[in-house]
Amino acid sequence: MKLSARNILKGKVVSVEKGATTAHVKIEIASGQTITSAITNESVDALGLKVGGEAYAVVKSSDVIVAVD
User: Fold this and answer.
1) Based on CB atoms within 10 Å of each CB, which residue in 20, 27, 33, 42 is the most buried?
2) How far apart, in Å, are the Cα atoms of 36 and each of 2, 27, 49?
3) Is residue 2 part of a domain?
4) Number of domains in the chain
5) Calpha distance 1→29 (Å, rounded)
6) Tens digit of each residue's pLDDT (9 = 90 or more) over 2-57
7) Handedness of CA 52, 21, 7, 64 (dihedral sign)
8) Residue 69: inside a domain
9) Cα–Cα distances in Å, from 46 out to 28, 33, 42, 65?
């Protein structure tokens, strides 16, 4: 796999929650650290995503969101 994105994090799928059209997929990239992605239900099926399976979280963004407590 070759991508232009430089933030490619390998992990394990720990949760797949399908909604009406969109699923929330949680990938554990390190012990206790997860990334959540919202993708279509079709994509979940096409990628064969299952809890316990391996997957990559690929992050490519042109925006940075700033937050404060």
Assistant:
1) 27
2) 22, 6, 13
3) no
4) 1
5) 18
6) 888 888 999 999 999 999 999 999 999 999 999 999 999 999 999 999 999 999 99
7) negative
8) no
9) 20, 25, 6, 30
The H or E element spanning position 58 is strand 54-59
* Domain CATH code at residue 31: 2.40.50.100
Residue 48 lies in a domain: yes
How many residues are given for the chain?
A: 69
Token reading at 49: 């995503």
Structural domain of residue 22, as residue ranges? Answer: 7-59
What is the pTM assigned to this prediction? 0.85
Consecutive H or E run containing 43: helix 41-47
